[in-house]
Protein: Blast:Carboxypeptidase B
Amino acid sequence: RLGTERFYSHGEINQYIEDLAQEQPRRVFVKTVGRSYERRLMKTVTITNGDGRRNKNVILVDGGFHAREWISPATVVYLIDELVNNLSENADLLLDYDWVILPVVNPDGYEYTQLSEDTRMWRKTRKPSSADCIGTDPNRNFDFHWNEGGASDNPCADTYAGSNAFSEPEAQVVSDLIHSHAARGKMYLTLHSFGPYILYPWGWTSDLPDTVADLHEVAQAGFDAILADTGTFYEIGSSTNKLYVAAGASDDYAFNAGFPISFTMELPPGGTGFDPPASAIDRMVKETFVGIAAMARKVVQKY
Ligand code: 0X9
Ligand code: ZN
Structure:
């Protein structure tokens, strides 16, 4: 296990999943699915129960969209740890499902925030987007109602939508993952901070999907489990109604592509908001895992 005493670099996280695949070659598979603008390798880890059965349903999880939200990759690492190393407790979550996990969607930004105090609050990617400004908001860069609201045309803004949909290689990688798993994909979960919120579509309109009752039921399972475990009170609802309009995000994209359940989980705040101290990692990731497991359990029962 990587441990929860500190935050890890993108390279350490990649090495960790490679090590897991080496140790458990029948259960854990690592695949390079693309490269970031600065050419960092983007790798997914697929976790199975090792029974060799193909074409199971899929739960797709990602973290690290926004560079400064370090608790997100930390939570993904703990999730991977639990699924791989605690199979007895989580056997039901892997019986008919495989988990496909991309720990850090925006590795260039993530590494940039680890350079210094001055860069700690960076949000976007790191590709130059104009003569004097760098970066696009990867969570405004998806080709579904792209740039229709809650996104900026200004390359210097923190919510810059990009020159066009999928201008960022990192967003294209997530899109490819979504499409390659859409046929069997039952839940898409993208981890952000800070909330705490469990958000479901839509985030581009205040209208609710026809299947809002299903979305709410699964979110409620996560809410109930976390409240019972630690007393943390999440808010549940549609992105637009609970938070704000923000079009071109990955959750709406995955839902539209066929995932019946799609959530943005905004993890609780810490420090000044986006920067909980390392001493908070352990309790935060364990709490979040309880919620994710409860939502997955509900999905496994429903679909
Ligand atoms: O604005 C975002 O991208 C997310 N919040 S954050 O503070 N982590 O940046 C919320 C995205 C919610 N989903 C949609 N609006 N579709
Ligand atoms: Zn975010």
